[in-house]
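We treat protein structure as text, and this decision shapes the records that our systems exchange. Below, we set out a record of this kind in full and without editing:

***
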Amino acid sequence: MNLWLLSAAALSLVTTGVHVLAGGPDVHDPLLALDMPPILKVYVSLLWHASSAVLAVNSIALLWASIRRRHREALAAAVVAQYLAYAGLFMGYGLAYVGSLWQTPQWVVFLLISALALLSLRPAHSRPDTSAA
């Protein structure tokens, strides 16, 4: 088992939970309460729940990669690419629209998850791996 990837998976799963449980009432619900055409509400919900699904799938991919060596690098790289893109989006839009990185701090967790996953890709002799699976 790769402990770096297991840590990344755990943090990704916690992030998914925060997105669903805290973000729903703080972001999704207020957006739906705005006076906008119904089709825009459909897209708000679709994008919200698509983000939830991607976070959950990425958490499972990291967990699987932590347990099984087969495709470990490809799974970790795919999740890292997505999470680095998310980090860049949160940073870019935070700076562009509100002039601060700290009103959109989600980039921090996406960078941290990515760093943990990238640590798992170091040469085998320098990373904690407790199985030969």
Q: What stands out?
A: Residues 93 and 99 are 9 Å apart (CA to CA). The helical segments are 3-33, 38-67, 72-98, 106-119. The chain has a mean pLDDT of 93. The chain is about 75% helix and 0% strand.
